[in-house]
Specification:
13 strands; nine-stranded mixed beta sheet; Rossmann fold; disordered N terminus; alpha/beta; globular; about 400 residues
């Protein structure tokens, strides 16, 4: 996981000027959807990766607590767009605002009020833009509720938003040293408000059990696994996590409008997994006619899916995720690649329940809708991961 220190962040409100036209559906109807909350440095709302022809209906904006709308400039360079929108948007956003950016998939907020420019990614960083890009890579239809910050307050802004389905966090102590972090806030999200939390394990071989982001038993701890031409240290990241996901991805830049870069880390494997889970949730909501989101205990009885004669909890989704994990064969490992092979002996200590990628999505959907059930995992795998869970429950209480 990339360790991030707060610096001067740039943020922005937008004013739309003779650019991208968005049609508003008169009857305010909307498709089935899922809301993912990346919590990170900020986000480049000007990047094409986050553009959309959709406009969120007013009822959805109200339920998401939106307090202002920023109509962005969509012509010119990144700097020209920012300069054009500075006075009408970025200079007036406060820590109490939740801002919708029409023409994009983004709703954003900065509850900590410790940044020079709210919501917008820092010109010297870019981590949050890449993180959010990984969500969209996995589920292009996800609604993004982006929170800037690295504190309990930032996590709670997403945890206490009823429509958020999944929180994704990619920050924490270097080496997973056993110090307090955001675990109290993620516990509110999962245990109290029945959401899912995807937390990045460290990029080192340190065990994930004591990691304050990936270790708590209510969190889904995610390490990295190399796919395709990756030559990074993937299986040496976050030992003994819940699952492992795509270590290296091509993600949007934070300081231009259409550029991309290749980057690696559990920071990006984690939101990728959150995006895949949101795609599964979205598909099931379509299938069972669930027109809202979140798992609010008061309005949705704590159910992630609350449809016609069908309901599903965060525990059900997590069980399906565990069942769907798989272990790559050591025979496919290239000794010249610079990566570590998956051990045939107790692979759970390297990658937990196993690897999660796009191939897990359809089997999970079929398992959860009851058409083709995923089999039980082998006894040794279950025993290994029950031991993992027991250690986490003992450590975190």
């Amino acid at each position: 996981m990339l360790i991030i220190f707060l610096a001067a962040f740039s943020g922005c409100l937008w004013e739309k000027k003779d650019t991208y036209e968005v049609e508003i559906d008169a009857d305010e109807s909307f498709r089935h959807f899922s809301v993912v909350a990346p919590i990170d440095t900020g986000i480049n709302v000007y990047h094409d990766h986050f553009r959309t022809n959709e406009t969120l209906p007013q009822w959805l904006l109200e339920e998401l607590g939106v307090t202002m709308t920023c109509d962005l400039t969509f012509e010119g360079s990144w700097q020209e767009r920012y300069d054009a929108d500075k006075e009408s948007c970025w200079d007036i956003i406060t820590s109490s605002d939740i801002v919708y950016f029409p023409g994009t998939r983004i709703i954003g907020t900065t509850p900590d009020d410790s940044t020079d420019i709210p919501i917008l990614d820092d010109p010297s960083d870019g981590h949050g833009t890449a993180v959010t890009g990984a969500v969209i890579n996995a589920n292009p239809d996800a609604v993004i509720f982006f929170v800037e910050g690295f504190s309990d307050a930032a996590v709670l802004a997403a945890a206490n938003q009823p429509l958020v389905d999944i929180l994704s966090t990619s920050f924490g102590p270097i080496g997973s040293i056993p110090v307090p972090g955001i675990e109290d806030a993620t516990k509110v999200a999962v245990v109290q408000n029945k959401k899912l939390h995807a937390g990045a394990a460290d990029n080192s071989p340190s065990p994930a059990v004591q990691d304050s982001t990936a270790g708590p038993p209510w969190s889904i701890g995610i390490s990295g696994y190399a796919e395709e031409d990756d030559d990074q240290k993937e299986t040496m990241s976050g030992s003994y996590p819940d699952v492992a996901a795509d270590w290296t991805q091509v993600l949007p830049n934070h300081d231009d409008i259409d550029g991309y870069h290749q980057t690696s880390g559990t920071s990006f494997a984690t939101p990728r997994t959150a995006g895949l889970l949101s795609k599964i949730i979205q598909n099931l909501r379509f299938e069972f006619n669930d027109n809202s989101s979140g798992a609010d205990p008061f309005t949705r009885s704590g159910m992630m899916i609350n449809g016609t004669n069908y309901s599903l909890s965060n525990d059900d989704l997590r069980d399906a995720l565990n069942r769907s994990g798989w272990y790559p064969s050591a025979n496919t490992w290239d000794p010249t690649s610079g990566t570590m092979p998956i051990s045939p002996l107790a692979p759970c200590t390297q990658v937990g329940w196993g690897v999660v990628n796009e191939s897990n999505v359809e089997p999970m959907i079929k398992h959860l809708n009851g058409t083709v059930l995923l089999p039980d995992r082998p006894f040794d795998v279950v025993q290994c991961m029950e031991m993992n869970q027991a250690m986490r429950e003992t450590y975190w209480g």
